[in-house]
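The methods section describes the discrete structure representation at length, but only in general terms. An entry of this sort, consisting of the sequence and the corresponding backbone structure tokens, reads as follows.
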Amino acid sequence: MSSSYNNTESFHTAESTSEHDGSSQAEKLPGDNTMSQDSEVKSSASTLEHDPLSHDAYATQPTKYEPQALNEDNLPPDLEPNSRRESITEVSRELSRVLTNAKSIEDRIRKQEEAGVPIPPMGGGKDYPPMLPDKEPYVVAFDGENDPFHPHNWPLKTKVIQCAIIAADTFCIAFGSAIFSEGVPQIAARYHVAHVVATLGITLYVLGFATGPVIWAPLSELYGRRPVMLLSSVAFASFNFAVACSDRLESILICRFFAGCLGAAPMVVAPAGFADMFGNRTRGTVMVVYSMAVFVGPLLAPFIGGFTVANKSLGWRWTAFITGILASANVVLVVLFQKETHHPILLVQKAREIKRRTNNWGIHAPHDEFQLSVREIVENNLSRPLMMLFTEPIILFISLYNAFIYGMLYLFLTAYPFVFQEGYKMAPGVAELPYFGMVIGEIFGGCFCIYREKGYVRALEANNGKIIPETRLPTIIWGGVAFPIGILWFTWTGNYHNDIHWMVPTVSGLFTGFGLMGIFVPSMNYIIDSYLVFAASAMAANTFLRSSFGAVFPLFASFMFQNMHTNWAGLLLGLFSILLIACPILFVIYGKRLRQRSKYAFDL
């Protein structure tokens, strides 16, 4: 929309106020009076069914702006109630956008009035344009639930292509986090530093995963998934090439951090993009694709990196070159084939097309009026996730469980070479082949999660389509049992390399990989189901803690296995993983009560 439209649409003349008999409405969500308190949003969220609407008109003179909530009792009689209805998933995303202050134009206008800021003149001596009779006819919307323009109704082939592109981008950044580990010994020798100092290249990269999503998540809500993915992919490729070409260790470490931070967009955009295209009944299955990319990438990377580093004509720099080349290929895929999936942005594109072809410049989408400042990004997208992390037991303990297994994933990057390269004396590259045992286990775990989705769908249908988050928890318990079995099997058999064949600790990866997927996938879905309204903040909290553990674990892994030996270090880690099984068990019993008492949880 033009600036004149945005600056004048919220003011009314006295004549328009009396003519419409106070029917002008601020652009708000139904059931929400002020949108200023999180608890008020939560209490009204269960009744939300419609997109935000507005009936403001152009004005020639400013008057006092008094917003009034739009609800089902005061809808205009000519508005079809179901014409813009969306599923509860889309409502929760709309609320998440509101709760991040992306929609705060009313507050801005109110503050400008209080400060006495005048409306900018039209220029050229022109008066303000005449009022539109009614704003609603100019607001575009989806054409019912079966609109082919809506991502939920796209052909399956289109959805598969989009999921493949998103998963490839996610795989690439996960791959880049681990392939660097194979070059750590060469880097330590080249720059005459301790092994742990060279390991900072992994730590800073994964630490970037914790900081990047804080910015990428709100930007994807404001500008769409595709431009954010494109910008992130370009930045990721650029900084990987910078790592490969840097001569100083400081430059390498700094570029690794920015590669992780700026390349981390898929960590938050991928689940959001999948949710754009799939509803509750299929979202859990699609999340397996995302989780496979997150966990398989770091396990395949050492295999490729090991042979790369062992080749004297390549060396450690080519681990960064390979990642940069893969990232560049992803840039091409995003440019040529990725489509925008974010619903409000699709309506913006639709409005622009109609506007261009009809030459009617009043046509617009509600998202055209969204505004987001740096202060709002910092205050609402950083403070709320941290607040939820330390005040919500469900988020804290599920995220702690996720963080532990994610940290273990990166700890295995040290443990496997310690067992197979130093213990079994395997050559670089060959010593990374046992990772495929864990990859196969992850495939089995992913298939198990898909199988368990049938039970979730049956429970959903039996409950009249209402979400029961605790239905996700039994799958976590199955994964939680398998994971410590894999840890103890690997560490205790791998410790006696002179007496036990190398295939025995390799087979342990079946249980470890199964546990990784069995815990991670349903945990993500449990958090989303429990915090529909605040799902974005809940996922940000989870990503922050998870990535922090992934960054720290590689730093103490080598000291732990060298000083405690493989078996006793594994026993300690196995006991921790056994204790954490209590988290899903307790939430099976107390989860519903905790959600009912929560300020943020969504209880249907």
DSSP finds 23 helices and no strands in the chain. The two ends are 37 Å apart (CA to CA).
